[in-house]
Amino acid sequence: MRGGRKAIGNLLVRPCGGMVDAIDSKSIVERRARSSRARGTNQAIAGPCGTVYPGGMKMIAAAATALLALAAPLHAQVAAEPVAQRIQADMPGLLAIYRDLHANPELSFQELRTARIMADAARQAGFAVTEKVGRTGVVAVLRNGAGPTVLIRTDMDALPVTEQTGLPFASKARGLSRAGVESGIMHACAHDTHMTAWIETARLLATRRGAWSGTLVMIAQPAEEIGEGARAMLADGLYTRFPKPDYVLAFHNSADLAAGVLGTTRGFAMANVDSVDVLVRGVGGHGAAPQTTKDPIVLASAIVMRLQTLVSRDQNPVDPAVVTVGSFQGGTTHNIIPAEVALQLTVRSYSDRTRTRLLDGIRRIASGEAIASGIAESAMPVVTVKPGYTRATWNTPDFTGRMTTLLRGHFGAARVVDLPPAMVGEDFGEYGRAAPDHIASLIFRVGGVPADRIAAAEREGRELPSLHSPTYAPQADAVIAAAAEALTVSAMDLLRRD
Ligand SMILES: [Zn+2]
Ligand SMILES: [Zn+2]
Fold it and tell me: Which ligand is nearest to the CA of 186?
């Protein structure tokens, strides 16, 4: 997910400060895992599903496969047990997977190791798996009789962020970002919780296949953070080489909601995200002789100020929009008026119409201010809108209502809140947009912040780390458990036998 933090009214959400440590969980399974680490052992943690991950960071695939085979009969026995109970029993193994993914993050379209783990897990759960869909994506299909097709998506990529959580399994990985900058790599958007919940959901639904009928398509998507992965998978035949879904589901963890709390938004949930460059050109010269120049610093400043009116004066106040100038680069020293200034903007909207109006407004204001500054026709500002923008995410309203009612019935009303839309971006919307009349789409939120930390932050007036922060560390067990349970009961409802 891209963008800043959002306001969520007063729903169990308040900025807080302290770093959230995933091993602060008081759950028994966490304490058990922690004591294993404290002993310095590298013993394998075996989940009841049979998957074995060593206490260290390396997965031993052969051992995992062998134990999974042995555990197959167990699946039949556990199929009838409550989903939540099964997840808690599986949690030590799931946290081992989570820590391994967290310690070994990979940047967008470089998710090779990660994709292999996802593919292996789905294959071992009984899915037919295809790799390298949309470069590094994974498609896992489980055909289970007549009925609709449900697609469940996780994203896989991490960010060029140097981790500062202090977690014992913190990432030390480094790499080159798309911008060519070398930095640390971190699951600062916590896509590692998404992947772990996805694996558990695949297992839960596979072991319960006697209770549902239809087709399950589970996908692990690359490159969400750069907004290209969903389109890459669709362009590589996601809906032609594999069953086309009737329903698409996903979740994103939340740095604002209390751990384990679910949130849904009907209609527009996340925004169109455009990146815009404005090159402001002037005539450079001596800082003491401004009359010989056309000062692009002053012109760019006027443009920045005038851009504020696009939202405050031109925009319908009940139709949200954002124009932020995030970068203003110009000049080298005190006494030189530069020839150019470069601005970088992020522009957020929901409807296509508003988006077009904002982008046209940026061009108009840049030209208008340049004319007012006496800039020659040949040196008008150059406005470049980055192609391939992230399109707004639309949660199909009646489908979202149906799933919200289902989840409230399952978890209790207090654990499922209505969330207002946010201006962050997500490329999940592409899966519904590919056939909006036929595919119902929902991405929901799962809270990752311990409630006591939210309360403490509120008392002390401190800020919580947001998604993409180098100190963001969700309470992983709560996110994974709530998400896997929600995805499983949702899919089973959509695929229920009549
Ligand atoms: Zn993100
Ligand atoms: Zn994200």
Answer: 1
Do both 216 and 140 map to the same domain? Answer: yes
- Let me know whether 396 and 380 are in one domain: no
- pLDDT of amino acid 80: 65
**Residue-level pLDDT at 1:** 67
Q: How far is the CA of 154 from the centre of ligand 2 (A)?
A: 10
Q: How far is the CA of 484 from the centre of ligand 2 (A)?
A: 17
Q: Tell whether 7 is covered by a domain.
A: no
pTM of the complete model: 0.81
Query: Ligand 2: distance of its center to the CA of 341 in Å?
Result: 32
Is 70 exceeded by the pLDDT of residue 444?
yes
Distance in Å, CA 298 to ligand 2 centroid: 37
Please classify residue 85 by burial: count the beta carbons closer than 10 Å to its beta carbon, then call 0-12 exposed, 13-18 middle and 19+ buried.
exposed
What digits encode the pLDDT tens for the residues 165-196? 999 999 999 998 877 889 999 999 999 999 99
* Residue 356 to residue 79: CA distance in whole angstroms: 51
Q: How many domains does the chain have?
A: 2
Q: Could you tell me the strand order of the sheet in which 440-449 lies?
A: 128-133, 137-144, 214-221, 149-155, 247-258, 440-449, 262-264, 416-418
Percent of the chain whose pLDDT exceeds 70: 84
Report if residue 352 sits inside a domain. yes
- Going from the Cα of 89 to the center of ligand 1, the distance in angstroms, rounded, reads 30
Do the beta carbons of residue 262 and residue 447 sit within 8 Å? Answer: yes
pLDDT digits 0-9 by tens, 377-398: 999 999 999 998 999 999 999 9
Q: How far, in Å, is the centroid of ligand 1 from the Cα of 1?
A: 3
Which pLDDT score is estimated for 498?
A: 75
Using the mean position of ligand 1's atoms as its centre, give its distance from the Cα of residue 469 in Å.
10
CATH code for the domain in which residue 59 is found: 3.40.630.10
- Do 334 and 447 lie in one domain? The reply is no
